[in-house]
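Support case: user asked for a sample of complex input and structure output to validate their parser. Sending the pair below.
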Amino acid sequence: MISISSKLSGALLLAAGVAIGALPSPDALAQARDIKIGAPLALTGPLADEAKKQEVVWKMWLEKVNAAGGINVGGTKSKVQLVQYDYQSDGQRAAQLAEKLITDDKVDFLLSPFGSGHTKIVATIATRYETPVIACAASSESVFDQSSKFLYGTLSPNVGLFTPMIKHFREKLPSLKKVAVLGRDDVFPKATAQGISAAAKAAGLDVYYDQLYAVGTMDHSASLSAIKRGNPDWVYVTGYTQDLILARKQMQDLGVKAPIITMLAGPAYKEYIDGLGNLANGITSSSWWHQATSYKGVGVWPTTESFYSEFVAKEKSDPDYVHASCAAATVLLQDAIERAGSIDKKKVSEALAKTDISTFYGPIKFSPNGMNQPRDLPIIQVQDKAVKVLAPSDIKNGDMALIK
Amino acid sequence: MSRRTQYLLFALWVILLASTPLWASNYVVRLAVTIAMFTALTLSWNFIGGFTGYPSFSTAAFFGLGCYAGALSERAGVPMLLAWGIATLVVGAFAAALGAIILRLKGHYFAIGSIGVVEVVRLVISSWGSLTGGGDGLNLPLLAGGPNVVARIFLAVMLAIMIVTFLITVVVDRSRLGFGLRCIQQNEDAANMAGVNVTLYKVIAFTLSALFCGTIGAAYASWTGYIDPSDSFSILMSIKVPVMCLLGGPGTILGPVIGTAAFTLLEEVFWANFLDYNRAILGVVIVILIFFLPGGLLGLSYRDAMARIGGMFGRTKAAA
Amino acid sequence: MDYLQTLVNGIVLGTLYACLAVGFSLVWGVLNVINMLHGSLIIFGGYLTYFAWHSYGIHPLLALPAVSLLMFAIGYLTQLTMINRVVNQPVLTTLTLTFGLDLILYNFMTVYYTATPRRVTLDLGVVDLGGVVIPFDRLLGMALALILTGILYLMMKRSKIGRAIVAVRMDSAAAALMGIKVNSIYAITFGIGSLMAGATGAIFAMVYPVTTNLSGAYLGKAFVVCVVGGLGSVQGALVGGIVLGIIESFAGQFFGPQHALTVGFLLMLVLLVVRPTGLTGVKGYE
């Protein structure tokens, strides 16, 4: 009845176990066999769009690496396989699939899915199995607080989003005083809302409005009306693209005006600008990366330009920071394997810890908790429906315009 | 199927699940844990949905509440097992109190009310950020030990809960309570007039349906190491559990066990092979279930099924 | 002053809620079926409208009737072929069935359209009535919602079919005895429910982003509106919607936006226990 499939799989696994036991030792094999990288992806469900971004760049990297013969592991080139499964945006499944990738598919390394919550879940499993896992889309410190020796993240901590922005805006608007913060009650948007609020207060600004809205909110009129009453100099809203599109529209409808309006991560995504048209003009934001930067570094994409042009040629649209960070994750992994000279999990993990490289995405060097070191993150603004980089000064290509 | 056979089948199934660490990979062991977990949830639901006929969709609320009660206790330093005990009691008390109010509703209203409960509890937990971490979720202290050890521990735990719920089902089934609940399902007013303490029985059934959801939630939280409101209070879970019970045969002892096993294994097959459309296929399975298996797998009469299929294609009746 | 703005926000929002819920309410009240498909049907209507606008330049107002008719047909057929089989069965069965159908529709939409939020960018500006600001597209939405529900109300009261529907709602056995083809009425009612969902989707496409992610949120709102207002009638949906809109608006102002949704659901739970027939006192089946 039902037990048959379990029994069958059990029998097969037993047979496989015996067969593998009879093979030569792992180290001898390591040089000859393919490198397997596992990727649980939320290809269906609410996180599908983000997962597809990850999939796209990982496949790009895979093609390039294998076309060059593979990764150089201590002198021999080994090709790379990417094993991916759809975990349907469900946390339980993410855990299940992470474990499957490690125990059944016997992957050497894991690439973490989008989002802090699911990254945490996958990282827990990976740590138990002492498998290195690289997170390219998780920036909340809470994800990295378990001092796992195997979790590394390419995104710099959220804090780099706040202080430089406050400084820059104060320069452009010396009278900046009243700030309103509206955040979505969800891991990343909440963390950033709280972050900017704390940083603004520490800088002596008057954060007169500081609230979170529930997931699933269809209407922001109440909050926006309250914000309007305070005559803000700076309005800061966090959430996912649909929330931000709605909020911007309602701000327009209700006549909420401010010289500076920041939305995170809105303008970093093309969907946001497409969805708002001219209403997107003037909106500022931060991003972990923008194509206007000009970094040089190791890996299959030696310069920002090379990544950008290849991406545009393939996808016919601009890459955003998720694309870049996740592509950087693979570049990082390759570099770590090459430095370790082996695909032994412990050795690669040690190599990851010692990373100090430059890539098309920017510098990668890890703090003790596994996060990429903090740095001043680019501040961007939408001008004429295109994104301009306002800061840091070495990569800027536009000047800030206050909203009239 | 005689009682003896039912108990025997259950025992064999438990042994099979328990033995997975000996002959299968950790992935299969995880599957076994999941099956045990959902079987216990379905057996619990069976009390209020199967025996009593009240379509509760609150399973996710009880499970989620258990997750948080357990997680908060553990983070406050309470030892794991005790934390699970606390979660069980908290959820049980919550269900008893809630039941006294909500069980006055019937049919559709009860169904909607039970869904509303899930939403309200999720929203409350979500907004009480200072206590629960809100949208950030909560980290739990990780259980020490390599993956094999952890897998075995949680397999044992979930199986234990599964066995306990099964035993309680057996006891209830043969007791006055079970009889009373079935009377209530048939005709509540008549049961009332016949002297059944309808309110008390309903509340007991509802509390039973919640109690072990709490334990499971707490254990699950310890296993995963991290919980957040959307995953803990998933409406999908609230729908899957009744479907599993319906699939096996509601109101029976073995029905929930068979239904969960069949459903979970079906899911594995579909999801592994039909990446993009797995939700749609789940939907199709549900539709087929509703049309062709009204009594679940246990209630299946092959003659009736053939007649039904025959009826769809033409007016001829199948030979009696 | 400020309260006036909040009140107006609430009323405008409320009429949108009413439009969202009226189809759901009708199906529940008449067929005794909780239609879990409702949220996804709204989104589907939204996608049809969006693509009509995006690919062919058809203005949503023009697309509205076409989308509505298409959705009516879809609903009618769905009911006739699927829902009719289970229409007299307990709520667990019907709810689970519509949930299963919803999974299918939802999955197809997510695969075909992807969950990327789409917006019909009309940028119609705002209307300023003495200090109270109403966005024009919401005002338009409100007007359409009122027109649609008004038409529906008249139809239910005056037309033969409308009265047949009411008769079936009150007592399906008696209605059958009076010569009403109950199955046909069921199908028509479900068709109307889908029509209203599709029309709502078309209206919403002008006001909100269209994405499958919102399907659950819309469905949840429909639940609350029905319980608050009362089942199976247009008045019930209107009253429920507007009351909910106003309450959410004020709750958002006094308790903060975090709690606005919670208040709505709590209200629903309280009413379920205290007065399940809702504010208009129209009783649904149990």
